[in-house]
Amino acid sequence: MELFELVTAQTIPEAVKAQAKSSTAQNGAEVRFIAGGTNLIDYMKLNVERPNRLVDINGLPLDQIEKTADGGLKIGALARNADVAQDATVKEQYAVLSQALLAGASPQLRNMATTGGNLLQKTRCVYYRDTATGCNKREPGSGCSAIGGYNRMLAILGTSEHCIATNPSDQNVALMALDAVVHIEGVKGQRAVPVAEFYVVPGATPQRETVLEPGDLVTHITLPKMPAGAKSVYLKLRDRASYEFALASAAIVIKQDASGKIEFIRVAMGGVGTKPWRSLEAEKALLGRAASSATFRTAAEAALHGAKPQSQNGFKVELAKRCLTHAMGQASQSA
Amino acid sequence: MDQVTESKVIGVATPRIDGPLKVSGSAMYASDHHFPGLLYAWPVCATISNGTIAHLDTAGAEKMPGVVAVYHRENIGKLYRVPPSTGFTLILDEKRPPLEDDTIRYYGQYVAVAVAQTVEQARAAAESVKVTYNKEKPDTGEKLLGTPLTTDKPDEKSKRGDTAAALQAAKVKVDAVYRIPVETHNPIELHASVAVFDGKKYTLYETSQAVVNHRDVMAQMLGVPTEQVQVITRFLGSGFGGKLWPWPHGLLAAACARNLGRPVKLVVSRQMMFESVGHRPAIDQRIQLAADADGKLTAVQQDYVNHTSMLDDYNEGCGEITPFLYSTPNLLVTGGLVRRNVGNPTAMRGPGAVPGLFALESAMDELAIALKMDPVQLRLKNEPALDESLNIPFSSRHMKECLTVGSEKFGWAKRTPEIGSMKRDGLTLGWGMAACSWLAARIETEATVELLQDGSARVACGTQDIGGGTYTVMAQVVSHETGIPVNRVDVVLGDSSLPPGPISGGSWVTASMTPAVLAASQNAGKALVLAAIKSDGSPFKGKKPEDLELVDGTVRLKGQQQGAVPMAEILRIAKVNSVSGTGKSDSTFGAAKPKVSFHSYGAQFAEVTWQPEIARLRVSRVVTVIDAGRILNPRPARNQIEGAVVMGVGMALFEETMYDPRSGAPINNNLADYVVAVNADTPEIDVTFLDYPDYQLNALGARGVGEIGLAGIASAITNAVYHATGVRVRDLPVRIEDLLVPANRTTHLA
């Protein structure tokens, strides 16, 4: 860990101004916001993150969870994962989010980790964590050690020859399926970015993971009103029963009409993409069709159509398909 | 040998006497020790695994805030090697002192050490030391069998009959290779050393499972007489064998304290734990079994190869159990070593037996399937009447009862052998079992027992409590012999200046300390009787020693309850603060010509649940029956077996240290990426102790438990996995991909 200065932001504009001094809001930022600290501090100890200034935003009034006028939900960036997971509205109307949060980390971590922090969670790629190895995300141009190395946990969708790191979050997979919107306050004022457009694939610049620019502070997310009668499920598959990142996960939101025909569908995947992965292909294969295990399997095949396995993670193609098929079945049958 | 058949404290479930200290945080572990002027050391670890140091630049680090010194080969000062020894003394796995030369042989090898006022400053300085290397291609290759050995041919470990001929002639045969990956000890307590040097004497607060050996090794390596080194380990946050022998960090801490004349603390990081403090080596084992059509074994052959480091020979000893577990006229066990660019392997819970039984008991399952025979019946059929490897009787062996009691408790009779044929709540069930065994032994032990005027007793022994319950069991033994209640017995362990006691390894502390503590208690009693008959004012003055007896903490005339005087009262009358006695235990370990075969036995039964639709495998239930002599304290004993079962779940399904073949780095070097079983993975565990005293080992009939619980578990689980899925996993751990796309397994790197 390197020496850093800790400052406390009293207001949102003050926070924005402080971070705007950084040359980037992405990997390598000289100024970082600190909230729960469950992810950033780890990486600072490993010298992967080396900010010279931390801006403590825990005092900002951004921890509320409240219903919006149009029937949706607003979740403050500082709302803790544990609080969001146990919120009555979240549990009732956005079950997939509650389930995803509870599938992640441990109770102690969920008590500290925030909604905004989780949105920006770093990859668990072992080479990203190890400064003795090359990693284009950590140090652009130093090469990707994961290609040809230990890549069992890594991505099969959205990869490039420069990076195959997985986005490890469970929350973000659910947010993809819920059409969440990320609200940002920056030097040029406020803006709203659909979560599907918030993340970028690595391409030739894996150090860049989101659309955030210097000064940008995620203030909250909003979830639109769910279609009446829609059901949702999060299913996470991993080696051990708890406290491990996903090998594959699925977030499904589904609504069927009286005849069983699918009239609304969202399909997102975790553990397999370089970003939380929404599958429009799977949704297309499901919309307007009658729910059946054959339809689900066809949709799952479509979702993994473009998968590019590495030396160790070829099994994820089939695992993700089974995960999607099973989760769709669960969602369509859930009460 | 004496036989204690009845006792008010032996065999009674007794809470740990050290429990309150531990739950209140007042138990002092090695890294808890702090002294005025204490400095912190942080090693610089090589980032290659094969090559030499080209240049080491400490100039920048030395100028950093708080930095007191940066030591490397040229300025660390004199450190020596230990002389070769033939006995059970001066043991360490990595014999090269740290910083001895500029050659790097494994990833993470220490190349320098920074010392500073705070741990953060020391770490920052260590990370600022600039090291360049002449890098050569490392070899961390996982394939072992068939690669060049350290010797011309494998060692013959055990042999009888004509195995080759019997295999040739066999009606039914199994021939398969089983692999175990590198597993890393991950006790929650990190290795740590706090070294205090007063200009002459070293006091070393260590994470050691063997304080006396640790002292002897450190004295040799520091070049001072043993009386100038004292090693203290009051409590251990476990070790699993990883803390049996000294590792380079301890010597670095002591050398820094010597050079600076100030106390130095060095705590090994979790990452370093994967590099430089040992691991269970990668092991390949080829097992060949032959049987006649009725299932009687006609030949057993085991050929194992384990990896070791570039400089030292660590033999995993996988053939330890094979020669006597089953009856067979023909048997051959061979073993060999291959060198890899890895840190030195070391003993990990149940060394040899645990990996050996994974292979043997997997092969026995495969043989049962080939014979269309129930696997329990196959084992019962091959139960030996004596230890056929040495032609000597077993001291006390109840393997058959382990198998039958386990079968009954588990409900084995309901098992249908067809793959995937058993279901419950929409889940496919797999039922598997394995037999297991572990050595039993005494090693040389001394203890002293004091009886005090305040009515308490004090027992001292230079062993240590790894967390298994040694403090409590020792108090029970003193209480049994003296009648003083357990809570009035002060147990003093974990200090090399105490009478030499056993290493906390081999599951033999209980068996070893029992005779010594019983004898010391008896001798203290004799001293008390002497005080009773010699002291003015004593009602027993002038009696002969043989007229008196000690019963329930009192002195009395033989057979006469009336007139009994509390022992403490005798000491008050005698105006003596305390009387003491010493006791010794001799060794059975490594005896040249043993007369009996001492071992513990057990049977493991496991149930897994399998959901093919989501490729989810979980261990749901384990029944384990253990024949480990008399259990002195069922509470910690059960705790040992339960913990071992959980460790077995990790061994079977999760644990594997992955080396990057390009750098030789153990790349999953943290508790998120090195997956161990968590609470949610813990199955329902049913532990039964048969509790047959083994009086040939000691008067209480205790053999000790710990390692036996891990033996056999992995194979019971993989046998259950086969029963559920039809996939035979011979290469641990069982991965989702093995069951999902068995033909496609690609997780291995090299």
UniProtKB/TrEMBL annotation, chain A:
One of its GO terms (molecular function) is FAD binding. The keyword Cell division does not apply. Residues 1-228 form the FAD-binding PCMH-type domain. Its EC number is 1.17.1.4. It is an enzyme of class 1 (oxidoreductase). It comes from the Bacteria. Keywords: FAD, Flavoprotein, Oxidoreductase. The keyword Lipid biosynthesis does not apply. The lineage of its organism: Bacteria, Pseudomonadati, Acidobacteriota, Terriglobia, Terriglobales. This is Xanthine dehydrogenase YagS FAD-binding subunit.
Automatic annotation (TrEMBL), chain B:
Coiled coil: none annotated. It comes from the Bacteria. Keywords: Molybdenum, Oxidoreductase. Residues 139-161 are annotated as: Disordered. GO terms for molecular function: iron ion binding; xanthine dehydrogenase activity. It holds the Pfam family MoCoBD_2. Its EC number is 1.17.1.4. Gene3D superfamilies: Aldehyde oxidase/xanthine dehydrogenase, a/b hammerhead, Aldehyde oxidase/xanthine dehydrogenase, molybdopterin binding domain. Residues 152-161 have a biased composition (Basic and acidic residues). Residues 24-137 form the Aldehyde oxidase/xanthine dehydrogenase a/b hammerhead domain. PANTHER family: ALDEHYDE OXIDASE 1-RELATED, XANTHINE DEHYDROGENASE. This is Xanthine dehydrogenase YagR molybdenum-binding subunit. It comes from Tunturiibacter lichenicola.
